[in-house]
Structure formats: structure tokens, C-alpha cells
Design goal:
heterodimer; A: alpha/beta; Rossmann fold; four-stranded parallel sheet; three-stranded parallel sheet; 10 helices; B: Porin; 2 domains; 6 helices
Chain lengths: 308, 456
């Protein structure tokens, strides 16, 4: 009897060990944009294996829904996306085609990051005559570390839900990331507050920088695009030129994934400078930039442009 | 930090916040209990030696600070110190911003936009064209402009929503001058184990690349001649079931198998077509089996390859059958770092049909190839060549006694993502006609409603 029990123990122990190692295997997280990947990686650390479906040089509205993304989603335990209809042009069919129950709407691994933030610019009426507007509000909140802090806490909760063994550690990680981001936000707010009001004015390309401008206290009287999503027209460019001259705006601020031709022309005619900020974190197979570093990098570019 | 935590938990997740929510101080003290403000002041009173105005609130102190700065230096210093200490207290409690007077008025912040009554996605897509033909047209697609004049090609209503946690419903209704038609209406599973997916209802079969798509995604106003001739004027579609399997291979490889009704000249032309003999055995359906693969050649280049076959009974009776074999290639170059959204894509589809007839075996072939260049998000250009064989005594297309070739070119202008203007010219050369047919078309397309997702 004793020998049988010890024999059983010998058999069961490796099985238990195997089970415990598989349950500690990293959670497969797939995000739509690299900023979310960087944030999830910063919160989850070694407990998550994060991949992103687009690069920071791509406009996140218009990512090709390649079938290879379907394969990535089929293996995902958690899908983290920006929400507010940013990915509505390409995510839903690849999500359905992945046949992955966890990441369908209502599944355990379906996480809309926009449910945790303070949304800005919710339109009273969403009519496409006003351009390509997002009816839920402005979706470009990931540029703002204050919103990033809120997302970090929510991601911590979600990861804790999916990895119960590490829940307290993940929540603590999330809180420390959020605190770091809030401190960074305050630091930059103070730094930019020292600039004069004449310096704190920019023109942006697309209506996508409202969260950054709100964070750093910068005013933006006009965009290069006449309406969101509509290419610059000659009449509107003339209007922008007039505004830049009248208000002595010396900086055109835009993300790398927008064309610079019109902005360069405007800059040349007004002795202004085009400041290009990264559209997302450098998060890919080779490089794993932290979200905090990416925000700092963006703030440095903007500060350098405004303070010259 | 108890106040900070409870603040976050209590923050409502629906849009009920008043528009008066502003920066740090007011958000923290203005709508919170006055007892808190008093407690902070009491603490401050202990910290500072200077006499304090007992009835002052934190708001007034901060508001007074800039005014006091214009006053005498000594009182100025006192007030500045007190404001500084207050700010530090507030920071300790976790507030974010201190510059209340300078903060611009922000629009109402709430967690999400207005919740919708239903999540049913409805889109309406209108396709209309003005066409000119130099002689009698030979268009093969049911929604191709057929002759000189103005044409409502179709008004497509595309609907879809998740039914429950297991299924989604997708439907496509087509309104045209001929009435309403259910183009597609099916339920599809969301997530079956083992990478499987099922569709049941009426649908366009996944025969090649173009067949399962709708005209608003096409790069040309009309269908390639091979699709209309071999598959049907509405493409290959029917009521039935489809099962597909996403393989666990590291690249995208999907196996598809479907069984659909073999009748209908519009939709199963090479099979029972107009002469629907009914279902007398399990073999009397159109069986479509395909393998679709995709390869990421680089981060900017993708290659999709499909091989599909259709088998089914044909209308000549006697258990005669038709087989169609199709292969398709799609090569797309989209430099991800290009800010203008430039892309170049090349498509090739080739079909071969073997049809058993009494005492005969007819073989027909056809195909098309097209090159489409999206210069940027506004302009697009394309060129297409298509051909289909023909031979005398073809019972399906009696007039087509010889081969037919067609070359088309298009220029497209997109003022926005939802409207499109396309100019297309074609030279259609059926060898059984004395001279080629020259065609010019100007087509418009408008989309309203739910933003449909793009296919690759």
C-alpha cells in the first residue's frame, strides 16, 4: 500500500509540476496599436507576451486587415484595443474570422481601453458632413499620460482577472505605472506652464492632438485639415496661413503618419517649424519601448519646438 | 490614500456628470463635502504661523493669490507661502492640476458617448452610372450598366449584428430597378472550437477572390467577363451551408467547404441554372471546396493565394456534371511608412470549366488580371484585362461562338472615405462580333450608415 502511494506520488508530482508551469506561461496579449502594447508590457512585465498589430508609423484608422493578423488573434488570450471606433474599419472582420471565443465581444479576453478614460469632444450630433467624426468622442487619448494612467489601472485589473495567481502583483505594478505617469504628466504641465502664452500656440494637422494640448495647456486655433479626414483644400490652406500670420504661430504639430507636404509649405511661408511627434511607441519584436519613455520623448519634441 | 481611491471608484461610468466639472481644486473640493475643505484648512492653520482669514476656502485662497501678488511685498510673500502650502496639501491628496483660473473650459467629460438603442449596423450604398456604348453591349453582370444611358446599378443595404454570444447575422439586400433581392442572408458562428466556423443561409460562395465581394469593394464598375459567363450574372451564390477551418499552421491557411443550391441562372449558371431539375440525390448540390493561404512577404508586401473547385450537376440531365477549377493570386504592396496611404495591388484569377454534355465534354476557360494603384487616399488608377473562351454550339451562351477579350482602365476620385467618382473606359472585343465595342462609364457611389470594415 505504502509503495503504491509513493509510486502514485512519483507519477503525480511531475504532472502537477507541468500543470503549474503551463499555468505560469505568459498570457498572450494582442493589441491594435503599439502604445497599448507598450503600456500592457509595462504593467504586465514577464507575465504577458504582447504583440501589436500595427506599427507607430501607420495611421491606426487605416491598417490593412491582413489574414496574418487573423492568425495572431486566433492565438490571443486577450485583445486590447483603443475603442471609440478608431479600429472600426479593420478590426471586426479579423476578430470574427479568428474564431477565438475569448476575444469576441463579451468574451473574457475582450478589453476596450476607452471604457476607462475621460473622453473629450463627444459630438452633440455626429454627421459625416462635419468630416469623419467619431460619434463616441475623440479616440486619440493614448498620447496623454493622464489617460494612460487610467488605462494602466484598468489593464492591471483585467490582467489580474485573467492571471489570478499574480493579481496583487499586477495591480501593484499597474498602480506604480499609473503613479509614474501622473508624476510625468505633472512635471511636464509645470514645465510647459513656464512658457509664454505666445509660445503655447500650435496648428495641428488632424484633430487628433486634443488630449496632448489639454494636458500641456497649448492652444490650437486651427487644423491643416479643413474637416477631420478630409485632405487640405487650397481655400482652407489660405485660411490657415492667415491664422498663422495673425496669431504669430510658429509651430505646426503633427504625427509621423500624416503627410507633411502642406505643412512644409505653410511652414516655409511663415518661417514656422513642423514638429513631427511619434504616432506610437517603438514596440516591436526588436525594440520594446516603455509607454512612459514614449510619452517623455513626445513631450521633449514638443517642448523643443515651442521653446526655440 | 483613502480620498483618492474612493474618488476613482465613485466616478460614474455613464454620462451623468454635469458640465461644471473643471480642474483640480473644484473637482476635488467644489462638489465634495465642505467638511473636507474645513479639515484641510484646519491642518493648514496648524502649519502656518501667519493669521488666516478664517472664512476663506481653498478656492478663494487660490483665486486671491494672483490678485495679492500685485500688493505689498510682505503680505504677498505670506499669501504665496500659504498658496504653496495649500497646493502641496492638495497634491498629497492626489489632485492633478492646480491652475484653476487659467484652465480653459473643457467640454463635458464622460466615460463614453451616448449609448445606442441597438447595435444593428445598417449601411446603405448607392451605385449609379452613366454609360455610353458604341454598339450593343454584352455585359455579363446583372448590375453592370448594360447600354447607353443612366443606370441605377443597385442600392445595397448591408445589415449585421451579433445575435448572441454564439452567432452573428449578416444580410445584404439589393434594391434595383428590377425589385428587391436578397443577395446574402446568413448566420455565422463567432467562435467554435478547433478553429471552425459555420455559415448557414444564403450567401455568395467563396469561389475565388472576387465572387464573395460586393460591388462597392470592386476596383471597376463592372464584373470581369469570366465571372458572369462561368459563374452567373449575380456571381456564384445560393442557399446552403458552409464550414471553414483555420489551420494551426503559423501562416494563414484556411480550408473551406460549402454545399449550396444548384439552381438559378443568375447564380449557378454552369450547374442546374435555369433548368432546375431539383434535388434527387446528395450529389445534386454545388459543392465548393477551397484552400486559401496568405503569406507576409515583408511588413509591406502580402501575397494571398487561393485554389477552389466547384462540382455539381448541370442542366443537360442524365446525371451530367460540371466542374470548375479556379486559382487566384493577390499581391499587395502597401508601404506602411508612406503617409499618403499609397498602395499597389495586383490580382489574377483564372478559371477552367469542364461540362459533361450528352456525347460531349466542353472545356471553357477564362480569367482576368488587374493592377490597381492607389496614389493616395483620394486618387486611384487601374487597368484590367479579361478574357473568356467561347465555341460554337454553346447552349449556355449561344451567341458566343468564339473567344472574347476586354481591356478596361479607370480613374477614381474619392472626396472622402464615403463617396467615390469613377471614370472607366473599356475596349470589349468579342471575336464573334464584326468590330469591338467601346464603352465609357462615369459611376458614382455613396455610402451612409455604419462604417463597414474593409477586406484585405
Amino acid at each position: 500500500m505504502q509503495q503504491m502511494v509513493s509510486a502514485l506520488r512519483l507519477l503525480i508530482l511531475p504532472c502537477v509540476l507541468m500543470l503549474s508551469t503551463t499555468s505560469q506561461a505568459a498570457l498572450n496579449v494582442v493589441t491594435t496599436v503599439p502604445d497599448l502594447a507598450a503600456l500592457v508590457a509595462e504593467v504586465g512585465g514577464e507575465h504577458v507576451n504582447v504583440t501589436t498589430m500595427s506599427s507607430p508609423d501607420q495611421d491606426p484608422h487605416y491598417v490593412d486587415p491582413k489574414p496574418s493578423l487573423v492568425v495572431a488573434l486566433a492565438r490571443a488570450d486577450l485583445l486590447v484595443f483603443n475603442g471609440l471606433e478608431l479600429e472600426i474599419g479593420w478590426l471586426p472582420p479579423i476578430q470574427t474570422n479568428s474564431r477565438n471565443a475569448a476575444i469576441q465581444k463579451g468574451g473574457a479576453g475582450y478589453f476596450d481601453a476607452s471604457t476607462s478614460i475621460d473622453v473629450m469632444e463627444i459630438p452633440v450630433e455626429a454627421n459625416r458632413a462635419m468630416g469623419d467624426i467619431h460619434p463616441g468622442g475623440n479616440p486619440h487619448y493614448l498620447y496623454d499620460p493622464r489617460q494612460g494612467a487610467l488605462v494602466a489601472i484598468a489593464i492591471g485589473d483585467k490582467l489580474a482577472e485573467l492571471i489570478p495567481k499574480q493579481s496583487s502583483l499586477l495591480r501593484k505594478n499597474a498602480q506604480s505605472v499609473a503613479d509614474k505617469l501622473k508624476a510625468l504628466a505633472k512635471e511636464q504641465t509645470d514645465r510647459f506652464a513656464k512658457l509664454s502664452p505666445e509660445q503655447l500656440k500650435v496648428v495641428t494637422y488632424h484633430r487628433s492632438l486634443v488630449y496632448i494640448l489639454d494636458w500641456l495647456g497649448i492652444k490650437r486655433p486651427i487644423n491643416v485639415e479643413p474637416l477631420p479626414g478630409i485632405a487640405p483644400t487650397p481655400r482652407h490652406v489660405a485660411r490657415v496661413l492667415g491664422t498663422m500670420r495673425a496669431q504669430k504661430i510658429k509651430v505646426i504639430l503633427q504625427e509621423r503618419h500624416y503627410p507633411t507636404r502642406t505643412s512644409d509649405t505653410l511652414a516655409r511661408m511663415t518661417q514656422a517649424k513642423v514638429a513631427v511627434i511619434p504616432g506610437g511607441a517603438n514596440y516591436n519584436r526588436k525594440q520594446k519601448e516603455l509607454y512612459t519613455d514614449r510619452i517623455r520623448r513626445t513631450a521633449e519634441v514638443i517642448y523643443a519646438a515651442l521653446s526655440r | 490614500m483613502p480620498m483618492y481611491k474612493s474618488y476613482h471608484i465613485e466616478r460614474p461610468r455613464v454620462t451623468t456628470q454635469s458640465p461644471s466639472v473643471r480642474g483640480g481644486f473644484q473637482r476635488f473640493f467644489g462638489r465634495r463635502s465642505p467638511a473636507l475643505a474645513l479639515r484641510v484648512l484646519a491642518a493648514l492653520g496648524l502649519v502656518l504661523v501667519a493669521p488666516s482669514a478664517s472664512a476663506q476656502t481653498a478656492d478663494e485662497a487660490a483665486a486671491q493669490a494672483p490678485k495679492a501678488a500685485a500688493g505689498q511685498t510682505e503680505s504677498n510673500q505670506e499669501l504665496t507661502e500659504r498658496v504653496k502650502a495649500l497646493e502641496e496639501m492638495v497634491e498629497l491628496m492626489g489632485s492633478v492640476q492646480a491652475d484653476v483660473p487659467a484652465a480653459p473650459i473643457k467640454p463635458a467629460k464622460s466615460k463614453q458617448g451616448r449609448p445606442k438603442a441597438t447595435n444593428l449596423d445598417i449601411a446603405l450604398i448607392l451605385d449609379a452610372a452613366a454609360a455610353w456604348f458604341s454598339s450593343e453591349g454584352l455585359q455579363t453582370g446583372a448590375h453592370d450598366p448594360p447600354d447607353t444611358g443612366f443606370h441605377l446599378q443597385q442600392l445595397e443595404m448591408s445589415l449585421g449584428e451579433n445575435v448572441d454570444h454564439l452567432f452573428e447575422l449578416r444580410a445584404n439586400l439589393v434594391f434595383s430597378a428590377f425589385g428587391v433581392e436578397v443577395e446574402e442572408a446568413y448566420g455565422r458562428t463567432l467562435a467554435l472550437p478547433g478553429g471552425l466556423q459555420l455559415r448557414a443561409g444564403q450567401f455568395l460562395t467563396r469561389m475565388g477572390r472576387l465572387n464573395a465581394t460586393h460591388p462597392h469593394t470592386w476596383s471597376f464598375v463592372d464584373q470581369p467577363i469570366v465571372n458572369g459567363t462561368l459563374l452567373g450574372s449575380e456571381g456564384s451564390r445560393g442557399a446552403g451551408v458552409e464550414v471553414s477551418w483555420l489551420s494551426p499552421l503559423p501562416w494563414y491557411a484556411e480550408l473551406i467547404a460549402s454545399a449550396t443550391e444548384a439552381g438559378g441562372e443568375c447564380c449557378a449558371k454552369s450547374f442546374l441554372g435555369a433548368n432546375d431539375l431539383g434535388v434527387n440525390s446528395i450529389g445534386d448540390f454545388v459543392y465548393t471546396v477551397g484552400l486559401r493561404q496568405f503569406f507576409d512577404l515583408s511588413s509591406d508586401v502580402g501575397l494571398a493565394w487561393g485554389m477552389t473547385t466547384q462540382q455539381g450537376p448541370n442542366s443537360s440531365g442524365n446525371g451530367n456534371r460540371t466542374e470548375i477549377y479556379l486559382t487566384d493570386l493577390y499581391l499587395r504592396w502597401r508601404p506602411t511608412s508612406n503617409t499618403a496611404r499609397m498602395a499597389l495591388s495586383w490580382t489574377l484569377e483564372g478559371m477552367m470549366r469542364r461540362r459533361q454534355l450528352p456525347g460531349d465534354l466542353r472545356v471553357d476557360a477564362g480569367g482576368y488580371t488587374q493592377l490597381v494603384w492607389n496614389l493616395n487616399k483620394t486618387w486611384e488608377m487601374g487597368a484590367r484585362y479579361g478574357f473568356v473562351t467561347g465555341s460554337p454550339d454553346d447552349d449556355l451562351v449561344p451567341e458566343a461562338t468564339d473567344d472574347r477579350h476586354r481591356v478596361s482602365g479607370q480613374v477614381t476620385y474619392r472626396p472622402s472615405h464615403f463617396s467615390r467618382l469613377r471614370l472607366q473606359g473599356s475596349v470589349d472585343n468579342p471575336l464573334y462580333r464584326p468590330e469591338p465595342i467601346y464603352v465609357g462609364m462615369l459611376a458614382v457611389e455613396f455610402l451612409v450608415g455604419a462604417h463597414g470594415a474593409h477586406k484585405y
